[in-house]
Design brief:
The chain is of the alpha/beta class and 267 residues long. The chain has two domains: 28-186, SPOUT methyltransferase, trefoil knot domain (Alpha/beta knot, 3-Layer(aba) Sandwich), CATH 3.40.1280; 235-266. 42% of the residues lie in helices and 12% in strands. The chain contains nine helices and seven strands, in the order αβαβαβαβββαβαααα. The chain has helices at 15-24, 41-53, 73-78, 93-103, 145-150, 168-182, 192-206, 210-222, 245-266; strands at residues 31-36, 58-62, 86-90, 106-110, 117-118, 132-136, 153-156. The protein has a seven-stranded parallel β-sheet, with helices on both faces. It is globular. The termini are far apart. 28% of the residues are buried.
């Protein structure tokens, strides 16, 4: 068992590096996520966080001509995801398509049209060795006609209620999870040289001071950190969730008001 509280183990490595190593070994470049012209930065940020959580290392964004912004959205939703993944922006869909073709990947798009293939058969959706670019569109019209025309496959997630679509981030997460279930071998597919480069970058980012940075770089060069077996947070760290003070104050006020209402009702 891994020690939840211990930051340092002379045999296994610092805990934060062990977590980094576990995440690094699950990172994949075989699937590139493309977000095309999302019009809400809140959704964009949530999708980036989802991509990072599923271990996708590269996300490309085709910028919308007009985008609704929310002040502070990155801090609230993406949190620190942006520092752990690689993003690239394109002003035009045609430029993004050209880059995908140059990479040799197959181009798969999410689509709700009648010609799209339902994500229900694992045998039908095996990710090829050269990888894929998975494109999700904007909140209102989805993937553009230009991207659809360039795609080698159109896929959709079947729904069973009156709603015929989902929130952009929810849909993205469910499609990725489905592809991961069909292709478990995609997890951890990355060039060795790129993985080693990421290791050095990540270890440096995790250091709190210059002395620790030197120490962590040594661990990176020696490649001797033993990865955590389980990335879930230990139970002892989940007993008390952190909640903002203003939210706690509002809950306290609401509770007090309910108690006063009960007393008045009895009287």
């Amino acid at each position: 068992m891994d020690s939840a509280a211990g930051e340092w183990d002379p045999c296994l490595g610092p805990r934060r590096l062990r977590k980094a190593e576990a995440i690094l070994r699950r990172r994949t470049t075989q699937v590139l996520l493309v977000l095309e012209k999302s019009t809400d930065e809140f959704n964009q940020s949530a999708v980036l966080r989802t991509a990072e959580a599923f271990g996708i290392q590269r996300v490309w964004v085709v910028e919308a001509y007009r985008c609704k912004t929310k002040q502070g959205f990155k801090a609230r939703i993406a949190r620190t995801s942006l520092q752990w993944i690689e993003t690239e922006s394109f002003l035009e869909t045609s430029d993004c398509i050209a880059a995908i073709r140059a990479s040799g990947r197959e181009l798969w798009v999410t689509d709700l049209s009648q010609v799209a293939e339902s994500l229900t058969d694992a045998c039908m959706f095996q990710i090829p060795p050269q990888g894929i670019a998975l494109v999700v569109g904007n909140e209102s019209t989805g993937v553009s006609e230009e991207m659809l025309a360039a795609a080698s496959r159109r896929i959709y997630l079947p729904l069973y209620g009156w709603a015929d679509s989902l929130n952009l981030n929810v849909a993205t997460a469910l499609v990725i999870q489905k592809l991961w279930d069909f292709n478990p071998g995609v997890v951890g597919v990355m060039d060795t040289e790129e993985r080693e480069s990421l290791r050095r970058d990540w270890y440096v980012q995790l250091a709190n001071n210059e002395e620790q940075r030197i120490e962590y770089l040594k661990w990176a060069e020696e490649k001797s950190v033993v990865p955590l077996e389980d990335l879930r947070r230990p139970d002892e760290f989940r007993k008390e969730a952190w909640i903002k003070k203003k939210i706690l104050d509002k809950e306290s006020e609401a509770k007090k008001a309910r108690e006063e209402h009960k007393i008045q009702a009895v009287e």
